[in-house]
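During the no-cost extension, the postdoctoral fellow (Dr. R.K.) reprocessed legacy sequence entries with the updated structure-token encoder. One reprocessed record is reproduced below for audit purposes.
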Amino acid sequence: MSLVLAVRPGDGRPGAALGRLLDQVPSSVREVVLVGGPAGEGVAREGLSVLRLGGWDFARGDIPHAALLAATGDLIVLMNADGTMSPHEIPHYLHYLESGYDFVKGSRFIAGGDYADYPLSRRLGHRALLRIARRLYGQHLTDLWYGFCAFRRPFVDLLDLREDGVELGAELVTHALHYGLRVAEVPSLELPRRHDPSHPRTIRDGARILGALLAERPHNALSRLAQGPFRGSHGSHGAPR
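Re-encoded structure tokens follow.
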């Protein structure tokens, strides 16, 4: 299994802190594709291969497509390396993949999930985008752009990945919906950032995610939009409560 980790500029994570994060990675992970991070730092754990892709301009997208293309594991997990996501949750994601789901994503807004820092403007924007996504895709998701997710390697081949920048988290979700993959949402606890505070750009991020939703919409989406208020759907699957 491969883990793709992104270290953003400004995370302020020294090599020792990144090493502690990697120490928490479960033994089922055999490969880490590390985007950014301090150069020249070793990894102490035996049996864990680390591929470093160097720096990345995160203004172009959350995680470079090259990182997904470089991952060789049958299963791929994406998560941030800023301390907000815990590797201890990875086995929970893998459980749902092994149970037959194709795409497993974390949700901060179902029972068992929570978030540490989510400004009101971002919550309102997220709710608006969720309503649009539900109308376009007929799916009932609760957390659209949270970047902690897991999927099978063949899914990467469906993405037609290029190395130009996109809002990759939203792109992965919309592709999964577009291709009719079985999607499971599992509770995830977003932890406080351990270093520099985040500076979300709500309008820019919202516009990019809306663009991804519209670009991947199914052929019958416009007729669904014209059918009146959304009344709910059972097309996606959440974790058992």
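Helices lie at 15-23, 65-70, 90-98, 120-137, 154-158, 168-178, 202-215, 221-225. Residues 228-235 have pLDDT under 50 and may be disordered. The remaining legacy entries will be reprocessed before the final report is submitted.
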